[in-house]
Fold this sequence. Notes:
Elements lengths: L6 H14 L27 H4 L10 H85 L12
Amino acid sequence: MTCSPTMADQYQYNTNEExxxxxxxxxxxxxxxxxxxxxxxxxxxxxxxxxxAEPDGTHSLDGVWKLSYTTFTVSKYWxxxxxxxxxxxxxxxxxxxxxxxxxxxxxxxxxxxxxxCLIESQCVSRIYSLCIQTFCDPFFEALGKIFxxxxxxxxxxx
Length: 158
């Protein structure tokens, strides 16, 4: 007697399976660590000290220096926030479109083209190999037998 799963068992299996499958479009993103792969680690981390520095002997007033630091830091912070609020979504849309086009071209044009070239080159390679084995191998084998009896003697004359 075989025990086949009932319709309810199959439904329970399918709903359990769906719980583990996550769609890549709805995955949760980390709002704390926004550069987990650290692709911008050394590129855009610009602080006040990296841009503006006063050498010894040439110092501005302390108040000017503090206000310059505050102005630089706050303006950089808010400028980035405003630019990302205004242009972030359109630029993300453009980058998404660009990478979608690149992926499409790679999947539907580049890889098939390369595969086609490989198939054609294998065909040409077999024909070339057959020609070499048919014509060149006997020719060079005969030349080898002809010149195999040649002896070269080196003499050093003083």
